[in-house]
Design goal:
single chain; about 250 residues; alpha/beta; Rossmann fold; 7-stranded parallel beta sheet; 9 helices; binds NADPH dihydro-nicotinamide-adenine-dinucleotide phosphate; binds 2-hydroxyethylsulfonic acid
Length: about 250
């Protein structure tokens, strides 16, 4: 069975997906910045399958460039690259947002995903098989106040995925974008700079998606027969839907 490379495997969807692919017997290559967290996942899953961890930042183009060459033979062929590492920072209006936060989201969600894809894709094309599964978001499909650059980065993920499909036609490599809505992971804690109370309030009084809900969807998409390409899959908790158009009204002149 081929390996599964997962970025952002130290938490949330990445960690939950690692468990499912391990249960199915796939060797795992797990990437994230937090060494202690990755080591914890490694200790848990290496009882089931070979696990190779890489403590790295997806913004580090040089570290990623050599990724496939560094992999021992047990991790070939590569069945799946799950481009999951990503984050939102802040929920402020565009005129007040922190430019450094915008840069970090662009560098991680767009450039990091590009670097990981470029590092792994030649091996998949050479194998004439493989699957790139990208984490988009409902924020890439629908606008909301404060979504500004985060939503923009996820719209990039969607269009990049479609363009990859165009480039990979006839080469045996599948590409999918998964676009979840509200899911309780460390996502909101990161978005609100570690403010646990603010993060918990996002999910109060409703049932959000769980990391396992999303991981099961990722797994299902990966396990379709090789001739089936799920292009895009959007999912939300039933308690989440859209608002009507917002209309700004002003008092008529007196
Ligand atoms: P978490 O915060 O729980 O997990 C994010 C993961 O990304 C962590 O493992 C983190 O690891 C990793 N990561 C972040 N930045 C980097 C970096 N520069 N280099 C390497 N790894 C990095 O969030 P989720 O599991 O919820 O999010 C996963 C993906 O899903 C993200 O792309 C997010 O935008 C997207 N998403 C989330 C939704 C939600 O509501 N939760 C909904 C829709 C999409 P570490 O900090 O150790 O580096
Ligand atoms: C995360 C979901 O709605 O907070 O991508 O943007 S949302």
């Amino acid at each position: 069975m081929g390996s599964v490379i997962i970025t952002g495997a130290s938490s949330g969807f990445g960690r939950a997906a690692a468990s499912l692919f391990a249960e199915a017997g796939h060797p795992l290559v797990l990437l994230a910045r937090r060494k202690d967290r990755l080591a914890e996942v490694e200790a848990l899953l290496q009882q089931q399958v070979p696990v190779h961890i890489e403590v790295l930042d997806v913004r580090d183009q040089d570290a990623l460039a050599g990724l496939v060459d560094r992999l021992p033979d047990a991790y070939r062929p590569i069945d799946v690259l799950l481009n999951n590492a990503g984050l939102a920072l802040g929920l402020g209006a565009a005129d007040q947002a922190d430019l450094a936060d915008w840069d970090t989201m662009v560098d991680t969600n767009i450039k990091g995903l590009m670097y990981c894809t470029r590092a792994v894709l030649p091996a998949m094309v050479a194998q004439k098989a493989g699957h790139i599964i990208n984490l988009g978001s409902v924020a890439g499909n629908w606008p909301y106040p404060g979504g500004n650059v985060y939503g923009g980065t996820k719209a990039f993920v969607q269009q990049f995925s479609r363009n990859l499909r165009a480039d990979l036609l006839g080469k045996g490599v599948r590409v999918t974008t998964i676009d979840p809505g509200m899911c309780e992971t460390e996502f909101s804690e990161v978005r609100f700079g570690g403010d646990e109370e603010k993060a918990a309030a996002v999910y109060s009084g409703m049932v959000p998606l769980s990391a396992e809900d999303v991981a099961e969807t990722i797994y299902w998409v990966a396990k379709r027969p090789a001739h089936v390409n799920v292009n895009q899959l959007e999912m939300m908790p039933i308690a989440q839907a859209w608002s009507p158009f917002a209309v700004h009204r002003e008092d008529p002149e007196p």
